[in-house]
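Hi again,

Forgot to attach this to my earlier email, sorry! This is the prediction with PXG bound. I've pasted everything inline since the attachment limit keeps bouncing my files.
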Amino acid sequence: MQNNNQQNAFQLKNNAHHFQPFSDNKELAEKGIKLISKAEGVYIYDDKGNKLLDGMAGLWCVNIGYGRQELVEAATQQMSELPYYNLFFKTTTAPATELAAKIAQLAPAHMNKVFFTGSGSEANDTNFRMVRRYWDLKGQSSKKVFISRKNAYHGSTVAAASLGGMGYMHEQGDLPIEGITHIDQPYWFAEGGDLSPEEFGIKAAQSLESKILELGEENIAAFIAEPFQGAGGVITPPDSYWPEIKKILAKYDILLIVDEVISGFGRTGEWFASEYFDLKPDLITIAKGMSSGYLPIGGVIVSDKVADVVIGQGGDFNHGYTYSGHPVAAAVALKNIELMESEGVVERVKNEISPYLQKRWRELAEHPIVGEARGLGMVAGIELVKDKNTNERIAPKSAAGGVCRDFSIANGLIMRPCGDTMIISPPLVISKQEVDELINKALKTLDDTAKFYNLI
Ligand code: PXG
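Structure tokens for the complex follow:
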């Protein structure tokens, strides 16, 4: 722990030199920043000695929880043996090959190849290029357009942010780039109007078919989607949504990219949400939980259908990264998966802890300022409202989320806002007792927020 003088000096250093991602850096300099200094299990600690239950597993990634020495040892061992080598020069490393084989074994049966990247964004850029190459090799070069969804998150590089549907990202850097278009999202609470969730799910799915017909099947390369939207606000689609999307995709010759950067590696109680929703992806984007966030690594799982063309027809795929399949990151990912398997983490999510979390989370729906409590697996969200009979929002729009987040942190819980939706995505290894603590802290936070706005 640092004393006051050290803390002040550190703040000044941070203000002077550190340009932080997705932040108003001017405001950070004025208001100060929280220094996270250590972590263990599901808890993080700041330099002032505060202990916080990490309801976000870092940034949706620390699936196995903090402080696992086995991962430290895997990294140390790999670093002393071979800290780096590339996969370009007709070479590979043992961890990269072993990890590809392990992921292929866990992935849906028709997916057997893995292309490694350093992050989820790079993986979606890889998808962008691999899909276009696929259609070129098939002699269907007119198939260039990617259909995505409004309020999707697919990363922050130029192609990934363009694939994403975040207006506030598109505003900066003149995005999206050409060849990417966005359809409606299945966000019933905010956009469902008078329709039932099931009716709305069908309607949202049908916007895919309308777009295909509008642009022409011969021009569409792929549809990309998260199984449930994560950064968009834990938007779990109505039950009717994915079956209808699948019906539409079956009619047309376009590829399906399922972005499992958040949903992969156990978060739904299956290794991949593609199994949870019974999707048949042509490509799956992975990152985050792959290494439980201990080191950066991502990738694309490639179906036999795509591999048969992109690999099968021969010729270089002129794409890759210095750190594609970095051996230390791959060794850590491999050990992470091995621990998840030997400890039955995914089965426990499915049979024990996600049913418990979801049952307790639904209790929050009784709170006067909660319009909806939803979730699946180990993600969940609540909608903050002024009046739960009309679901009118607290004015001004999106401010209540920030107020609620500040109370949550003061109460010892990392729960974060997406506009006026509060979301969680805790480590998969959270205990029932820790879930109880999370719910109690969330309830206290809701009370504090409601009192702040004179609503109780
Ligand atoms: N796809 C999905 C579905 C994601 O959630 C990415 C791709 C990009 O991954 P990388 O590793 O390049 O960050 C993500 C990342 C948020 C937030 O505010 C979420 C992410 C990243 C940054 C912020 O919830 N998800």
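The chain has a mean pLDDT of 97. DSSP finds 17 helices and 15 strands in the chain.

That should be everything now.

G.
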